[in-house]
Design brief:
Strand content: 5-15%
Largest sheet: 5 strands, parallel
Order of helices and strands: HHEHEHHEHEHHHEHHH
Helix content: 40-55%
Structural class: alpha/beta
């Protein structure tokens, strides 16, 4: 697997800064008038080593602080998880049990799944789950509750047997979770699966800013470097809380790995047929929302309905966030990193997304 390294680019900047500081007499310690046993290159090398150690130590400390803040927020109960209580879809014991989902939006994170689910569930023949993201298949504490708990998250089937009515959920962290495809195949083997894929560089940057809004301290470049060196690791954060600004909802997560789509899709195809999987390009969904929704309605066997489209970039559950553009050198390096994965994805799907 290609190694994404930013160190070289950042070392250039640090070398230049150190050199200028030496020339201007701005080093922290006194500059010797002469160094008979050390030339200027050796002095620079030692200074770089000291700076590198300090930088790595600082990065580790900032990551540790972010994790401690996350744990503290969770301990304080700062975010209420409504699904830990009995889901509201089927509360009365004499009511029919909830239906299992006919469709699941399995990913990817930060690719427009919230807006997509909001629009799709406007269809008169689509019934919402108790919550958009149920995390039944990727959270052990929920999966252990069993299938009856999962059923309760969905409305009961319509009493009129001739009525077309389907239900489903959208948990975008399912796509990348290794254990989920087999679990889904065991519980709902006939389910239709929908995937939205966004340019992986944009996806990673959006994901980073989600974490930053919750108090994640390192810069984007530092977070990428931390991931490749093994410092930034951990389970997926609860994506059903994507729009919360609470720090307690933001444990570290991998940014680069989530955009390696081809291997994730191949894992799902081990358990589901090609006809059960619909892969959509997020940029097409944003640009031609109505046309994309018609494709989805055909895929799900729904009659065509014109759905009330939301303003571009908005969802009914969130406020649009804006952030500064990515550094050009960072974007170029990320595009080079993802190029082989994207090419494999195009070959796998038989479609060139133009990323």
């Amino acid at each position: 697997m290609p190694i994404f390294r930013l160190n070289k680019a950042f070392n250039v900047g640090r070398d230049a800064k150190v050199f200028l500081n030496l020339q201007g007499g701005l080093t922290r310690g006194p500059v010797p008038e002469s160094a008979p046993h050390e030339d200027q290159a050796e002095i620079l090398r030692k200074e770089r080593q000291r700076n590198e150690k300090q930088r790595k130590l600082l990065l580790e400390q900032r990551l540790e602080i972010s994790q401690l803040k996350s744990k503290l927020g969770a301990a304080n109960g700062s975010t209420e998880d409504v699904l830990e209580a009995a889901p509201p879809a089927s509360q009365e014991q004499d009511e029919p049990k909830g239906a299992l989902p006919e469709f699941i939006v399995i990913g990817a994170m930060r690719c427009g799944t919230s807006q997509f689910y909001d629009l799709l569930t406007q269809h008169p023949n689509v019934r919402k789950a108790a919550a958009k993201e149920l995390h039944y298949f990727d959270r052990p504490e929920r999966f252990e509750k069993g299938i009856e708990w999962y059923r309760k998250c969905f409305p009961a089937p319509p009493r009129n047997a001739g009525q077309i009515s389907i239900t489903g959920e959208a948990t975008p962290s399912y796509l990348a979770a290794p254990q989920v495809p087999e679990r889904v195949a065991e519980v709902v083997p006939e389910a239709r699966l929908i995937v939205l894929l966004r340019h992986p560089v944009d996806r990673a940057y959006s994901h980073y800013h989600l974490l930053a809004r919750r108090g994640f301290a390192p810069s984007f470049e530092e977070a990428l470097e931390a991931e490749q060196t093994g410092l930034l690791d951990g389970e997926d954060e609860p994506s059903d809380r994507e729009r919360s600004s609470n720090v307690g909802d933001a444990p570290p997560t991998k940014l680069l790995a989530k955009g390696m789509y081809v291997d994730q899709l191949a894992r799902w195809r081990q358990f589901f047929g090609e006809e059960q999987l619909l892969v959509l390009k997020s940029e097409d969904f944003y640009k031609s929302t109505a046309d994309t929704l018609k494709i989805v309605q055909d895929f799900l066997g729904l009659p065509h309905r014109e759905l009330a489209l939301l303003p571009r970039g908005k969802t009914s559950r969130s406020t649009e966030y804006r952030y500064e553009p990515m550094e050009p050198v960072t974007r170029q390096r990320l595009e080079e990193f993802y190029e082989p994965y994207n090419q494999r994805l195009y070959e796998y799907l038989g479609v060139d997304f133009g990323w």
